[in-house]
Specification:
Elements lengths: L1 E4 L2 E4 L7 H7 L8 E5 L2 E3 L14 E6 L7
Parallel strand pairs: 1-5
Antiparallel strand pairs: 1-2, 3-4, 3-5
Length: 70
């Protein structure tokens, strides 16, 4: 199955994979600081384990960073 993650096409070996499993396989750093966007819609963290990917899905792992201030 082919999906696009952060603008790069990936071939996944499994036909049934959740967002959480993909994050673990991809060794996403600081997963607590990541918000996932699936096909343009934000996915709630509580749904990562039950949201399964389909052929052609587009995911974005968005990292939130604190800081700033002058």
């Amino acid at each position: 199955m082919k999906v696009t993650v952060n603008g790069k096409e990936q071939e996944l070996q499994s036909e049934k994979i959740s967002i959480l499993k993909l994050m673990n396989q991809s060794q996403v750093k600081m997963p607590d600081m990541v918000i996932v966007q699936l096909n343009g819609e934000f996915v709630e963290k509580k749904d990562y384990e039950i949201s399964f990917l389909k052929e052609g899905d587009e995911l974005e792992f968005v990292y939130f960073m604190g800081g700033g201030g002058i």
